[in-house]
Amino acid sequence: MDKDHPRLVSLVPSWTETLFAFGLDQSVIGATRFCVHPRELVAKVEKVGGTKDPDVARIVALRPDLVVCDHEEQRQEDVEALRAAGLQVWLSDVRSVDGSLREIASLGRAVGREDAAAALVERIEAALAEIRPAGPPVPVYCPIWRRPWMTPTRDTYSHHVLAMAGARNVFADAPGRYPERAPAQAREAGATAALLPTEPYPFHEKLALAREELVAAGFDPARILVVDGEALTWYGAREPEGLRAVADAVARLGP
């Protein structure tokens, strides 16, 4: 691989944005249709399918030096197909904020941008120091889907973002990574507030329906807030501002 001008295909939206933040504008030659940031740059990149259904043949035809994947974003069979085709795959597995820092450094090494990666890690660490909450954590319910209602556990990046922001995920210790837990169960578990992310489920577009179910379960309407889904789930380049945005949302809930 030419570390000055590597040919890169990214199948992970947050890593795609991060590669551009590393200054690799001319190196990213393929991305998924869900890779939307930075908008003006990614619009010029060839699309190679989705995160769960990448077009392996099209990716092979692009002759990339490296394909950037993630354990949660990509199916194992697609990763194996890319490797079987002779492509080098970099595979992340981000399940915490600390884990994101390690993977940012690893990606920087893989694409020859160690300094840019180190600078990003420093910005994230500065954001973490800035948002450190002073009071007790707010018990929250943070669903990522509706019908069925699903929520993250401590084995997810979003859980750790919530924790850093001053929230206590009431389903932190539930089994699995995204178990089904309805609003009534959240109230029983001690949740006093609900944070509704804008993705993957568009709670901001269906807020009235979601709010109705939450209020029926006993949530105070004043303590039901929408939070930027990208801030909650996108690691990498968006992480410093994402951490601040989630911390601001939690702070607005009050004690």
Defining key terms:
globular; alpha/beta; Rossmann fold; 255 residues; 9 strands; 13% strand; 2 domains; four-stranded parallel beta sheet
* Biggest sheet, spatial arrangement of strands: 3-2-1-4-5
What structural category arises from helix and sheet content? alpha/beta
The CATH C-level name of the largest domain is Alpha Beta
What is the CA–CA distance across the termini? 52 Å
Roughly what is the average pLDDT, rounded to an integer? 96
CATH topology of the largest domain: Rossmann fold
Counted by DSSP, the helix tally is 11
Largest sheet: 5 strands, parallel
Radius of gyration: 19 Å
Helix content: 40-55%
Supply the CATH superfamily name of the largest domain: Nitrogenase molybdenum iron protein domain
β-sheet strand percentage: 5-15%
Query: What is the N-to-C succession of helices and strands?
Result: EHEHEHEHEHHEHEHEHEHH
| Total of domains | 2
**In total, how many beta strands?**
9
- Shape descriptor: globular
